[in-house]
Hints:
Chain A is mainly beta. Chain A has one helix and five strands, in the order ββαβββ.
Amino acid sequence: MNILLNGKQLSADNNISLIKLLELNNINEKNIVIEINKKIITKDLWGETRLNKNDKIEVITAVGGG
Amino acid sequence: MSFIINKKLYKSRLIIGSGKYKDFKQAKNVLKASGAEMITVAIKRTNIGQDQKQENLLDYIDPSHYKILPNTAGCFSANDAIRVALLAKELLNDNLIKLEVLADKDTLLPNESETLIAAKELVKLGFAIMVYTTDNITLAKELERVGCIAVMPLASPIGTGKGITKPEYIKKIIRNANVPVIVDAGIGTASDATIAMELGCDGVLLNSAIAMSDDPIIMAEAMKYAVISGRKAYEAKRMKISDIAIPSSNKKNVLS
């Protein structure tokens, strides 16, 4: 199935868990927050959250800014 | 009056940004040299597909020593700013936010109506808002009335380094405010920060003035003293300006 990860189209296994997606994409779990379809998914739910076709996932962190 | 933000007392009245540095290490060293106890960060997408061990800005800022102030930079609507504020709260586990809703990419001036809408909504959601605003005194007062904990008028547009272009407007905001007034954006060099503090600002927030100087560490130190200097001058209350020259030595006992 296709998903959008930080605006980039990716192909992922059906029903993949969020935590697996992070692992496959080499994303460090520290210092990030995640949104799926503009809804924040708290860290305790990353393991049980399954992704659906066309989900828009945003992985957000703090960067330099004024 | 002490410098208190969100019930916390700060010794330094300087707040610095973390943008535009060569690397995180330089940002960290600048923070130390500036004496600032609060540093702004932006909330953005991570780079995907890179090394797991890739460093993160947050690894370089010790939260037991420094208050991290996330901003809503890059937002042009109230809805976007609210979304970013909620992400920041989840990321940093804190309700403090620098609200910034911009009008357009060319001027980077605040969008007044969207800023006010976002402020009202974020207060309802329990945020402590330090709000980036224009030098419009009516808006500054309104932002305070809806519950913002600090108002932060610009000295001049973001990144221009033009200093305080309308000091009388900043003064008016200060005179009417019951929350801290912090000049945010437009500071170009140390004397600009001093002037802001001499006007009676409670603090100064700056980024490019340090980051875009040739030697950010030395400039950070200059800003530290500039803010202290300006504050002391404000507290000491400057001498009256006279049109007539007045000698510094006693007029008596002049040799004849």
